Amino acid sequence: MSLKILTLIRHTTPDIAPGICYGQMDIDVTNSFADEAAAVTAWLSPPELIISSPLQRTRRLAQYLASQFQCEQRSHAGLLEMHFGDWEGRSWSDIPRSEIDAWSADMLNYTPPNGESAQQLMRRVENMLQELALLPQHHIAIVAHGGSIRAVLAQLAGIPLSQTLSWQIEYGAVMGVVAKT
């Protein structure tokens, strides 16, 4: 068994109006990207590899960091944010109250119409972590989303995802963890 250093980084501020459900919508980041990316770089020890979600708001930061640290960058679909299906692109206030209530009552198992459940997100992340364990690199930076970062942390800590739902993970947040592989 070996140890890996995983640095978890949330994407910078997305270019979307507040209050919109955007899960797997492929949106860009705001004009503050350069400043936010420079701040992330200042907090980051040089990784050997950077892996991101394939969405442009994460991939853009991952590519920037890879150029700063002269390391390889890859994308992995296991790091995508939760897919909110028919809710995506809609204001949270426009989603039927009955659907929001059903989701709130069982956030881990409820699946938004044409979307995925938090349990499905957890399985994607678990599979991605198993793949990371096989990589030769010891320091890997992961650029992802609030939901997928919570899922990584829950998997590594061996706790239910429900215990991470109240954790605030700000845009551009940098968190280091050590994982046994």
Characterise this structure.
Helices cover 34% and strands 16% of the residues. The protein has one domain (3-180): Rossmann fold, CATH 3.40.50. It has a 5-stranded mixed sheet. The chain is globular. The model has no long low-confidence stretch (mean pLDDT 94). The longest helix is centred in the last third of the chain and has 16 residues, at 118-133. It has helices spanning 33-43, 56-69, 97-105, 118-133, 146-157, and strands at residues 3-10, 49-52, 72-75, 139-144, 174-180. α4 crosses α5. By secondary structure, it is an alpha/beta fold.
What's the topology here?
Blueprint: E1 3-10, H1 33-43, E2 49-52, H2 56-69, E3 72-75, H3 97-105, H4 118-133, E4 139-144, H5 146-157, E5 174-180
Helix pairs in contact: 1-2, 4-5
Quick structural summary:
The chain has 181 residues and is α/β, with parallel strands linked by helices. The chain has helices spanning 33-43, 56-69, 97-105, 118-133, 146-157; strands at residues 3-10, 49-52, 72-75, 139-144, 174-180. The chain has a five-stranded mixed β-sheet with strand order 3-2-4-1-5.
Hey, roughly how much beta strand do the residues contain? 15-25%
Overall domain count: 1
Named CATH topology: Rossmann fold
Helix-strand topology string? EHEHEHHEHE
For the biggest sheet, the summary is: 5 strands, mixed
Overall structural class, as computed from helix and strand content, comes to: alpha/beta
Tell me the radius of gyration.
16 Å
How large is the count of helical segments?
5
Arithmetic mean of pLDDT: 94
Distance between the termini: 6 Å
Shape: globular
* Oligomeric nature of the chains: single chain
**CATH homologous superfamily label:** Phosphoglycerate mutase-like
- Under CATH at level 1, the class stands as Alpha Beta
Number of strands: 5
Q: What order do the strands of the largest sheet run in, or round the barrel if closed?
A: 3-2-4-1-5
